[in-house]
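Predict structure. Input: Copper oxidase, 443 residues.
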Amino acid sequence: MYSRRGFLGTAALAGASAISGRVQAASIPEAPHMDRVVMQPPLHPISGPDYRPVVTLNGWSLPFRMNGDWKEFHLVAEPVVREFAEGMKVNLWGYNGQSPGPTIEAVEGDKIRIFVTNKLPEYTTVHWHGMIIPSGMDGVGGLTQPHIQPGKTFVYEFEMKKSGTFMYHPHSDEMVQMAMGMMGMVVVHPRDQSFRPVDRDFVFVMSTYRVDPGTYLPQVNEMTDFNMWTWNSRVFPGIDPLPVRLGDRVRVRIGNLSMTNHPIHLHGHSFAVTCTDGGWIPESAQYPETTTDVPVGAVRVFDVLADNPGDWAFHCHKSHHTMNAMGHEVRNLIGVSRKDLARAVGKLAPDAMAMGSSGMAMGNMEMPAPDNTLPMMTGTGQFGPIEMGGMFTVMKIREDLARDDYRDPGPYKFPQGTVAYEVEAPDAGPVRQPATPAHKMKM
Ligand SMILES: [Cu+2]
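Output follows.
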């Protein structure tokens, strides 16, 4: 849980007169710290205008305090250890104990003051991606402000001019700092609570890492060959499910600070993209989709009516992005005769194991792995291996969930007679092979 020590003074401060201009060191709020990797319950505002808060997959929202009519937050940029999934921990950089940093929530029209303390070994800044703010608050090191040196604290002050979904990340040694996991999301709720209200509101940011098996640090110079495809620096089966009550209007806000696009797909429903980091999309411009591409450096938000109960896969549709680190070097042996292969390989390596000649389904195979990495596909469902990794989780739509209950409801209890089933089919015969092996074809 986060520390509330810094917030004991909230009530007293709320009554104080507005502070304007330069803040004094003594008035810097203490920075809350999170040490858990599971989704924290929504943080309902205790002061300021009301709103329906978001939940952050495997994350949390940053508590704030009111100081006069300013909403004050404190981010601390620092080294963190992030568990990607059970069995793999990575040394990253992040904020307030986690990578990504906490979600910052506010309301359209709020006056925001964000303290940023740098506990990294090098300088940093924070850029507020997509937000309409004064140029001097834009966080581009060298261009709009001096870099924040290690041990120093800077203050960003601006008004939340428009509602929507935004991101934050450094604009200071960006390649390294973003490859190390420094990022987070900003959600600005509409002041008018009747504007497109939803019952559940999820948020996460996508990032990618190359962490070679047996190592603990991302390769920050990697440009294309990543092996960990993460949502909020977690991979399946480490990504929280999205528990949803049947009939809920659900919003999912997705940021992309990786170096490639991700087509995000939800099963069992159609949805509409309702918002980007540029703002709300007018209803007349929305159309139904089941997959939406989230470009690099962008936010896509979709709204969906959860009217179909069940366990619904929710994932990136690039199939390599639902895989983890181990096993990508394996050759394609589909269709190769296992006997021929074993004979050929046996001459060179007597103990070798021929695998993959009927596909690569690995669910029932246990192989020794190096320390601190994850098999290509893992996870088990009620019917067997799920054979996914990376950017994959499950939207769990249930009739019997309480309104604000975000706990994992467990596997879906399928009504009798509604699951695909095997039939007696004696003519099905053995696995088919191509009529003519490719190497015997006349070209
Ligand atoms: Cu992807």
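DSSP finds three helices and 24 strands in the chain.
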